[in-house]
Amino acid sequence: MIDFKYTGGIINEEEYQHKIDEARTYVAKAEQDSFGGWVNLPVDYDKEEFDRIKRAAEKINSDSDYLVCIGIGGSYLGHKAVIEALGGERKRTKILYAGNCLSVRSMKKVLDELGDADFSINVISKSGTTTEPAVAFRIFKQKLIEKYGEEEAAKRIYATTDANKGALHDEAVAKGYESFVVPDNIGGRYSVLTGVGLLAIASAGIDIDALMDGAAEERASLISDGGKAAEYAAMRNLLLEKDYNIEILANFEPQFMYLNEWWKQLFGESEGKDHKGIFPASVVDSTDLHSMGQYIQQGRRNLFETFVEVREDCPGITVPTLEEDLDGLKYLEGRELDYINKTANAATREAHTAGGVPVLEIVMPTIDERSLGALIYFFEMSCALSGFTLGVNPFDQPGVEAYKTRMFELLGKPGYEK
Ligand code: PA5
Questions:
Q1: Which of 19, 64, 88, 387 is the least crowded, having the fewest Cβ atoms under 10 Å away?
Q2: Going by C-beta distance under 8 Å and a sequence separation of 6 or more, which residues neighbour residue 338?
Q3: Secondary structure tally for the chain: helices H, strands E
Q4: In Å, how far are 81, 82, 139, 215, 284 from 201, measured between CA atoms?
Q5: Residues annotated catalytic, as ranges
Q6: What is the pLDDT of residues 134-180, one digit of tens each?
Q7: pLDDT (tens digit, 9 = 90+) per residue, 333-367?
Q8: Which phi-psi region, left, alpha or beta, contains residue 329 (left: φ > 0; alpha: ψ -120 to 50)?
Q9: What integer pLDDT is reported at residue 401 of this predicted model?
Q10: How far, in Å, are 306, 309, 370, 399 from residue 2 at the CA level?
Q11: Is 318 helix (H, G, I), strand (E, B) or coil?
Q12: DSSP state of 3
């Protein structure tokens, strides 16, 4: 459910309807695009591979304390978002992440945590040549071979990459790694419901059938005319036209921190081009109300907020009752912590609206596989419609190459000499 009741006065009904009508026309354009494979994915995916992913996840849980997921950007943010949003791993295997930066300290931390435990690797790279995961893969592959020998190591490496080409594809074929495909028609940031995200998610003990079902249900409600995704896309574009050029994704659930990160990549990489776009930012409240809250309430009035809210109650922890009232909390005694959190949420929306921040709400009934699958699909469709409405290609990312080219020059990669 999405609600725009806090944007009254900024957007008039006529322009809103006009923009929605435009956004709706882009559903077919997204579906027909050569990178529109995600549109029908929830109802048209490779069932044989899906079953293989489940079997691989079972094997990983039977022989590995850790699965090291090596990938960057669209190759790791989606599955990390899903696993964390659902409260983390539910089985033996813990997921570790590597190859999403080049920090030595970060690498040492992962290696330290891994120690001498049993582990497997899921190396995820569509191109197979991205520097960060390629370097990390060498490091963890070497550790795997030292621990298990070449033959057993090859059985513990799962490669998710292009079906036909690339360095990682070629190595997987040569060494006999079990492989999963990043479909040609799905870009990294739209790929969480493919082998890119599903092996890690299934290895964490999460029900990937329910995740896909949730995405399929959302697809059914959006596929004919964009539904609520067209409304969100229209509202974002109208706010941008009125110089609200920063969108903050806000929630009151620390488990959603990586959902925020995934969303920022999805919208930032899809829309930030041709000197256009809304800058996507995020907060996790009430924590960030004590850091970013001041700016949001009273800073420059060029931002709007989209709250992702969970409707379901989360009972179980109440404020203890005490004889004395030294901390002044008597008025909250016996109250559920969840009630206080939800009240903070309502208060924040009202305060920010009063402070001149347009506020949108996306309501999730609960936090489970189905609703997350639905939310992922909703954001993917909204992003595509919003990008097309903005007048950019929401499926390419030419700007990402600039730093790589310069880095290769500085590192002396063959073919990049000045
Ligand atoms: O969304 C994208 O396309 C990017 O974030 C890529 O996923 C990221 O750059 C990693 O690329 P690759 O999977 O080719 O290693």
A1: 88
A2: 313, 314, 315, 317
A3: 15, 10
A4: 10, 7, 23, 15, 23
A5: 269, 290, 404
A6: 999 999 999 999 999 999 999 999 999 999 999 999 999 999 999 99
A7: 999 999 999 999 999 999 999 999 999 999 999 99
A8: alpha
A9: 85
A10: 10, 10, 17, 32
A11: strand
A12: E
Q: 3-state DSSP call for residue 189?
A: helix
Task: Name the helix (H) or strand (E) containing 66.
Answer: strand 66-70
Of 337, 236, 299, the residue nearest 11 (C-alpha)? 236
Q: What CA–CA distance (Å, rounded) separates 204 from 119?
A: 14
Looking only at the bridges linking them, the beta strands covering 246-251 and 157-161 are unpaired
Q: Which two tokens stand for residue 407?
A: 């880095």
Q: What gap in Å lies between CA 96 and CA 93, rounded to an integer?
A: 10
Nearest alpha-carbon partner for 182 in 196, 172, 169, 198: 196
166 lines ligand 1 (CB under 6 A): no
72 Cβ inside 6 Å of ligand 1? yes
Residue nearest to atom 15 of ligand 1 (CA): 125
Tokens at residue 341, please?
Answer: 């959190």
